[in-house]
Amino acid sequence: xxxKIEHIGIAVKDLKKSEELFQKLLGEGPYKNEEVYSEGxxxxxFKVGQQKIELLAASNLESPIQKFIEKRNEGVHHxxxxxxxxxxxxxxxxxxxxxxxxxxxxxxxDNKRIVFLHPKTTNGVLVELCEDI
Length: 133
Ligand code: ZN
Fold this sequence. Notes:
Bound molecules: zinc ion
Number of strands: 8
Distance between the termini: 16 Å
Order of helices and strands: EHEEEHEHEEE
Strand content: over 45%
Shape: globular
Structural class: alpha+beta
């Protein structure tokens, strides 16, 4: 079951500068910084009530975030939906015709297992499903 929007991911060029900006905007600093080696990203998490904002900066030139910024500049990168079971949701959504970038869960930031739906089947929006580890 999909039970909430877990976070919104925003691609940024300069994590430090963006952290300052979001700290001013939200009135509170990030509660966590984490490098996700498998994705080539450095992340910074802010709490906004029950939800979070995840800032994502590329940590190398091959990073998907680097490619995203080259193509589309900074901005909203993905929406993450919290699910009880990734496997159950992958099965349900595949049966409905949704496509995934990969159906094998990876370890994401902030103690989550994650998969991404392909934006071509979700109106151009990159959707992440995440499950607590
Ligand atoms: Zn995310």
